[in-house]
Specification:
Strand 4 and strand 5 form a beta hairpin. It is globular, with a radius of gyration of 25 Å. It starts with a helix and ends in a 6-residue tail after the last helix. It has an 11-stranded mixed β-sheet with strand order 1-3-2-6-8-7-12-13-11-9-10, with helices on both faces. Strands 4-5 form a two-stranded antiparallel ribbon. Helices cover 48% and strands 11% of the residues. The protein has 588 residues and is α/β, with parallel strands linked by helices. Its EC number is 3.5.1.99. GO terms for molecular function: amidase activity; fatty acid amide hydrolase activity. Keywords: Hydrolase, Lipid degradation, Lipid metabolism, Phosphoprotein.
């Protein structure tokens, strides 16, 4: 376009109307064409990523067949039935070979993936790692244990997609710190697992690799954002996985899939080498942590990770080794508890799980003390939502440039991308009718200035001080409380992000928190759900009721919380709950 014609477009008074119309039409057509070209490029990138995944899974199948031929006498069902502690003992004693264990889990992972679509990549370096293990004189704490890794945690030679097109094609040149430490301890990372687009969602779907299903009920979500981990471990295709958590992303899939999961204190484990759409956000603490079928597996993983190797690779991690004495202690505990937080009414099974666990703990000789988290509405709206979206969700919206929004995220994304003025106006209109939704819309506008961001950080610190003071006043060791559940029906998580209130509180506080399954949904729970109204009677309450319907027989969990840097005490409490709920013995 010449300068003269461009000027005519910019200043219509100089242009002939027909010329102007033609120019505008051609410009509009150019925009449409560019969009179509952009979408085509996006589609090509996604197609290429899917082809790469298919080739990786074919390679995994061939490797599994080869290992099976070389270990024809392997008792796969026996290996898959062992706990991780038992498996480590047999591997170290030599009664099982790392090859036979890896083959067993590779084969099972492929089977589970065909059923629920949870694996995004095969970490082919695991075959070479097997050979390296044989040369090592000292056997690490996780010697020969196959481990699954959440998609966004870097593994050398593989992409970390984050479920987004913008990260495709970026092959990582080195392992994340946590993967390096796992390998140092003899573990064998062998697959990467699926996540929701952006990971700011607790379903598990993206347009690159598709929807992951819950292996316990395919009509249900496995949770997220560590949903691929939850599905694979619950399906029996992995014995230990590494996830991440910024609002409940380890604890929610653990709850939905009937697993144990631990969200540590923010910097207890290195986060170096993980992709995130929220780099720079400091108001709410994200962290990496383990997921497994039992608490002893989590404890062994933490013990293995908290070693000199991690402290050297990442000097920002406090050099605090795992305290075995605290974990194995049998001293009676002072336990604070609450059955609901006042922001979202718990489902009947959530409430019953806490009541049942509280009674078991009391009968076992522990002291149970009622506790109410202070100012929960303020925490969820002003500290969590306004904190995690302190930029008005600008970074997250920018991530979608050159991408297509997954249907499971559309409800969230459409709200995030509204101009701040529209959000504020809607908040004013909705305040008399739906005050909770109005507060959420206002919080999504962010903080507005650097000064306000400082104030927001100060408010988080002040709330943490207030919370700890109340904890100390009651002389608590730990807290027992609900975790969101049971597993949601598909399509609801993206419409109920604020329902993470039970878990996101402990990201704001930066306290270690873990999840333990204690029961299953009963027909009585389902019947009681028919009378569920919620605290506000707004569309969110109606959606939550719909989300958890039809869950009879699915797992129900509780959440166990300790003060910062007390992961060992948190795990000890989780083990106590597990032992009482399931009658298991301590296996340390």
């Amino acid at each position: 376009m010449t300068q003269e014609r461009l000027w005519q477009v910019l200043d219509p008074s100089w242009a002939d109307p027909r010329t102007l119309l033609a120019l505008l039409c051609s410009s509009a057509a150019a925009v449409v064409l560019l969009k179509r070209l952009g979408w085509r490029q996006v589609q090509q990138k996604m197609d290429e990523a899917r082809r790469s995944r298919d080739l990786a899974l074919e390679r995994m199948e061939k490797a599994a067949r080869r290992l099976k031929q070389e270990n024809s006498d392997t008792q796969t069902s026996h290996i898959l039935s062992l706990t991780m502690v038992e498996l480590v003992e047999k591997l170290k004693a030599g009664s099982l070979s790392p090859e036979s264990v890896l083959y067993s889990y590779m084969d099972k992972a492929l089977e589970v993936n065909r059923e629920v679509n949870c694996v995004t990549d095969f970490i082919h370096g695991c075959e070479g790692q097997l050979q390296e293990l044989k040369k090592q004189k000292e056997k690490g704490l996780l010697y020969g244990i196959p481990i699954s890794i959440k998609d966004h945690i870097n593994c050398k030679g593989h992409i970390s997609s984050g479920g987004m097109v913008k990260f495709l094609g970026q092959v990582k040149e080195e392992d994340s710190v946590i993967v390096q430490v796992l390998k140092h301890q003899g573990a064998i990372p062998f697959v990467k697992t699926n996540i929701p687009q952006t990971m700011i969602n607790y379903d598990c779907s993206n347009l690159i690799f598709g929807q992951t299903l819950n292996p316990l009920n395919h009509q249900k979500s496995p949770g997220g954002s560590s949903g691929g981990e939850g599905a694979l471990i619950a399906g029996g295709g992995s014995i230990l996985g590494i996830g991440s958590d910024v609002a409940g992303s380890i604890r929610l899939p653990s709850s939905f899939c009937g697993l144990c999961g631990l969200k540590p204190t923010g910097n207890r484990i290195s986060k170096q080498g993980a992709v995130s759409p929220l780099i720079g956000m400091q108001s709410v603490t994200a962290m990496l942590g383990p997921m497994a079928r039992d608490v002893d597996s989590l404890a062994l993983c933490m013990k293995a990770l908290l070693c000199q190797q991690m402290f050297q690779l990442d000097p920002t991690v406090p050099p605090i080794p795992f305290d075995e004495e605290v974990y194995t202690s049998s001293k009676p505990l002072h336990i604070g508890y609450y059955e609901e937080d006042g922001y979202f009414q718990p489902s009947p099974s959530m409430k019953r799980a806490v009541q049942h666990t509280r009674k078991l703990l009391q009968d076992a000789g522990h002291t149970l003390i009622p506790f109410a988290p202070p100012k929960i509405d303020y925490v969820v709206d002003e500290l969590f939502t306004r904190g995690i979206f302190s930029d008005g969700a600008a970074h997250l919206v920018d991530c979608f440039k050159g991408d297509i929004v997954d249907p499971s995220l559309k409800s969230q994304f459409n709200t995030y991308r509204l101009p701040a003025l529209v959000k504020r106006t809607l908040a004013i209109i909705l305040k008399p009718i739906y005050p909770r939704i109005a507060r959420d819309l206002s919080a999504l506008c962010g903080v507005g200035s650097a000064k306000n961001l400082w104030d927001q950080h100060g408010a988080v610190g002040a709330y943490r001080t207030e919370f700890i003071a109340k904890w100390r006043e009651l002389r608590l060791d730990v807290i027992l409380c609900p975790v969101l559940g049971p597993a949601f029906n598909h399509g609801y998580a993206g419409k109920l992000f604020a329902a993470t209130s039970y878990t996101n509180l402990y990201n704001v506080l930066n306290f270690p928190a873990g999840v333990v399954p204690v029961s299953t949904v009963t027909r009585a729970d389902e019947e009681e759900l028919k009378h569920y109204r919620g605290h506000y009677g707004d569309p969110w309450d109606k959606r939550l009721k719909e989300a958890v319907e039809g869950a009879v027989g699915l797992p129900v969990a509780v959440q166990c919380v300790a003060l910062p840097w007390q992961e060992e005490l948190c795990l000890r409490f989780m083990k106590e709950v597990e032992t009482l709920a399931h009658g298991t013995k301590r296996n340390v």
